[in-house]
Here is the input.
Amino acid sequence: MNSLYGKDLITTQDWSVEELEKTLDLSFEFKANRYDHPLNNCLDRRTFFMFFYNPSVRTRQSFEAAATELGGHAQFLEPKSMRLKSAKTAGETVQDAAEVMSRYAVGIGIRILETALETYGQGDELLREYAQYATIPIVSMAHDRFHPCQGLADVMGYRMHAGKNLKGKKLVQVWAKGALVRSWSSVQESILLNSRLGMDVTLAHPKGYELDPEVIKWCEENAQRSDSTFEIVHDLEEAYKDADIVYSRNWMTSNFYDYVAKDNVDGAKSKEIQLASKYDDWICNKEWMSMTNNALFTHCGPVDRNAEVTDEVCDGPRSIVYDVAENRLHVQKAIMALTMGKQ
Amino acid sequence: MNSLYGKDLITTQDWSVEELEKTLDLSFEFKANRYDHPLNNCLDRRTFFMFFYNPSVRTRQSFEAAATELGGHAQFLEPKSMRLKSAKTAGETVQDAAEVMSRYAVGIGIRILETALETYGQGDELLREYAQYATIPIVSMAHDRFHPCQGLADVMGYRMHAGKNLKGKKLVQVWAKGALVRSWSSVQESILLNSRLGMDVTLAHPKGYELDPEVIKWCEENAQRSDSTFEIVHDLEEAYKDADIVYSRNWMTSNFYDYVAKDNVDGAKSKEIQLASKYDDWICNKEWMSMTNNALFTHCGPVDRNAEVTDEVCDGPRSIVYDVAENRLHVQKAIMALTMGKQ
Amino acid sequence: MNSLYGKDLITTQDWSVEELEKTLDLSFEFKANRYDHPLNNCLDRRTFFMFFYNPSVRTRQSFEAAATELGGHAQFLEPKSMRLKSAKTAGETVQDAAEVMSRYAVGIGIRILETALETYGQGDELLREYAQYATIPIVSMAHDRFHPCQGLADVMGYRMHAGKNLKGKKLVQVWAKGALVRSWSSVQESILLNSRLGMDVTLAHPKGYELDPEVIKWCEENAQRSDSTFEIVHDLEEAYKDADIVYSRNWMTSNFYDYVAKDNVDGAKSKEIQLASKYDDWICNKEWMSMTNNALFTHCGPVDRNAEVTDEVCDGPRSIVYDVAENRLHVQKAIMALTMGKQ
Here is the structure.
């Protein structure tokens, strides 16, 4: 039995570098042998539950395909039809739900983002509560704090296009304008994981777009341990200069939850969209890219074209967005095979 | 070909005791050999349709997992997107729907409960209309009158924890307060099936919570035939005294449909919740359990904790709720294998 | 590798007669060997995406069952949860969606009908835009213009009941009253395909129910090339006289989209229903059928009984509606096997 069997994946920060490398290795193997790998039947007739508190197409498609390719089946579940107990309503406790689901399935994926929550961190708490009671692995399919599968898919893409040794290469994680009011999850996972694996990470955003302070502290510690650098800048020139990889993506401010509380989700989104629209320069375009070290362009998708990035860059020869999207499949197969595949 | 092949399961009352025992035997075999039983590929590439007129998480999870574990696939269908003919609207007849579905699949599960119906019994009629036209088995996934899969999962749990010979043991089916306004289906199936299989069944509820008179009459006949007893009491002491198994669960009054007609579903639920809240003693707790013969505690789930049962009892050493929930999977696999598996 | 591998199917008109015959041959083979054909595992662990812009039960059931029977899995996706870019909202482009989906799956089915569109032809354009960017086949699951799978299922039914040589036999495609405001897709596919394969096709409808002029032009060209006849009549006697196959079905007027623009979908439907109700004679009944050459009755389903056809005819000995419905499964398996099955 491998050491990852039974392990939850709520953020890559919870796993050792060795465990992450093992997962990436298997992801590359699955990519090379899509339907013919020895582990390719490791979910044979097993069930994986996918809980979508928030909808998603990409994540659902790639997780369901991953289970199918391993011989299993992923059930698409929307908790709106689930009578879970809450402060206001009678229903089932997370304990009971998790205990029972553990009897039916080999793993549970959960997606829960800002618009389904009242405060930042609630989603992470819910995943950890499920993990406490479930006797099968809980895998984040993106939640308010983290998005481990995206983080691993990113790294896989960088290694495909920039080589396995990324030590000393500069990743700039740069905020972008846009009207989609994005979650922090992919961005936080990216800076955590890449600072951990030894890249020099630059986080760039306008003032007011600060991320989770605890995540920032972990990034600093990660960089120190991996003998790399982590810095935060508010200037685009500084950000793009000599970058090897550019990851341009919009995200919301930390005030989003307050806006929702005062107004509602739609009101909060309007406020965020209005605010973001002021930063006209914050788009990844040919001019900014010309300052880099012929950088790769990456994005977790879906791309908000001509807001987060111009068509020219997104469709250009250094764009790896489709490969990164594909990698979600390989990475998720590897996670499933290692944490819940038959032994 | 086995005798159950092609048979509908709308209530266990429609099957012979021998057929039920055969199903339970196979359920235990599937439990012992979850992925390795000789029948474990008996739905190989076959389709089972699940029609959820009412939503459910547990039932959907366990049926879909059951089909997957047998090598088949259960399609999750919600009839809101189905243009069925009704008194008011043009659409497809049940005849046409059932005939065509019989061409695509090997079986059809249907769930339809109070809130989708106008009068008690309509759900049962719909299942029997489907059964009339379909050339493949119809299986109840809980309807207004019955819940055969739950009934069999209950019995399997009792046998796991109290031995196969339950003759003369006392099952108390006791009403409980709570805010979930439950269907009669699980409760009626339980008293029918256990009176049939020879337990001494005591049905306990406050006056006003009477169940379907025809079901009560069948329970009396079942008890007579199986040389056991069936009684109805309105007193908790009498109910719990010397019980071997306690099944505490809320259910609605027979006025629910009238309340819906006068008001609407939400109004009817409010009325039922208000009414149920008066019976403060009707909760399964340590004190009541101390009067029993060290009884097992069971419930079909999802449990409304601290209304139907205290945490102390539900999490205590005599609680079998998670095992019973798990048994849904094994029982449903056995039903599918016997009634629609390849021969 | 067969010549159909990788090919889109948006209408049968895009395929050669030879390709269509090859598909029909395989459909008959799948019918004869439902679970045992050599190609029956050709989607082994592969994913097929089904995009339902409009809901459907029959189409979903038969496509999902088809993928299951070939060893694969069809994901049921509703684009309401997909953030696609539109004129009004930020989101993902069709290019990005199609490119990424091509990384996860072996094929994509799309259903999009009138009520999800603003003008006739938009659905066809969307399918062709997907086909432009996807590197995997796009299959129409019915769209505003065409319904190729239904067309092939129809032909298969005719050959089962009237023999393989349909040359010179008369198919009457006759409009019927009814309250379901049907799409043009099945009807247009039917007249296109059968004029192509050599039947004498008569299209019959009241004035005002004209179909797409380009489709009509193609039908005329098809008939010329296949040395058969294509005619349009507005008289029921002329229509039914000496027919070998009667396909009676309601469809909307070409004004439907204008009605929606002026009013809304419900308003437009009311207008169409009111208009259609004037044509009391336009129902397929015993009297009209008595004028035919003992014709088969067919319909793509779901049937609007006693509007499109009487019970007597629909349940009569010459009705092939259930067989045609079943053929959807066989035909779709053949299309999948040939265009996206492993080679």
About this structure: Residues 17 and 197 of chain C are 7 Å apart (CA to CA). The first strand of chain C starts at residue 47 and ends at 52.
